[in-house]
Amino acid sequence: MQQLQILTHQIGKTYAKPHFFILNKGLNSGKPLKTSCPNCFVLISNDETEMDLNYWLVYGLWRAKSFHPYLKGSVIYFITINDLKAVVTKAKITTMSNSPMFEESVNTLKKLEDIEERYLNNLKLIQEAKRAVFYWYIKK
């Protein structure tokens, strides 16, 4: 297994290899992000397939609140880069020993994310419809 390349993101820096960002401050520490923010790490992968698997691994760890025991701070919680690397590396070793099951879990997560996105879009449309109904009465 190759060692994970996780770095502290510097604002304005671009990366040539496939990558994604990981939030490092607040109760959502460990949340994977497609775009950067001021308080994040970057996980750099060798190819798109590896990046996709790493993204979903970190996403699963975040959803399972696996990073919470490692949060530090009394007012603003944060996770250190070493703790993040340790958690992700340990999980990656576990998933490599059970690769077909992990890939099935990733596919299930992707499907659930698609369903959630559709539901959120439907909720937005319902909110707009409610607004339109009342807007019509106001205009008369």
What would you say this structure looks like, in words?
- Strands 1-4-2-3 form a four-stranded antiparallel beta sheet, covered by helices on one side.
- The chain has 140 residues and is of the alpha+beta class.
- The longest helix has 41 residues, at 99-139.
- α1 packs across α2.
- It has two domains: 1-97, no CATH class; 98-140.
- β2 and β3 (32-33) form a beta hairpin.
- The protein has three helices and four strands; from the N terminus they run ββββααα.
- Pfam families: DUF6943.
Distance between the termini: 68 Å
For the largest beta sheet, what order do the strands appear in spatially? 1-4-2-3
Number of strands: 4
Q: Residue share in helices? A: 40-55%
Series of secondary-structure elements, N-terminal to C-terminal: EEEEHHH
What is the mean pLDDT?
88
Can you summarize the main beta sheet? 4 strands, antiparallel
Shape type: globular
What is the rounded Rg? 19 Å
Structural class: alpha+beta
Strand content: 5-15%
Number of domains: 2
> How large is the count of helical segments?
3
Low-pLDDT windows of residues: none
Topology:
Elements: E1 5-8, E2 19-23, E3 32-33, E4 40-44, H1 48-63, H2 81-97, H3 99-139
Antiparallel strand pairs: 1-4, 2-3, 2-4
Helix pairs in contact: 1-2
InterPro entries: DUF6943
Question: What's a concise summary of this model?
Answer:
The protein is an alpha+beta fold and 140 residues long.
Question: What are the main properties of this structure?
Answer:
single chain, 140 residues, alpha+beta, 4-stranded antiparallel sheet, 3 helices, globular, DUF6943
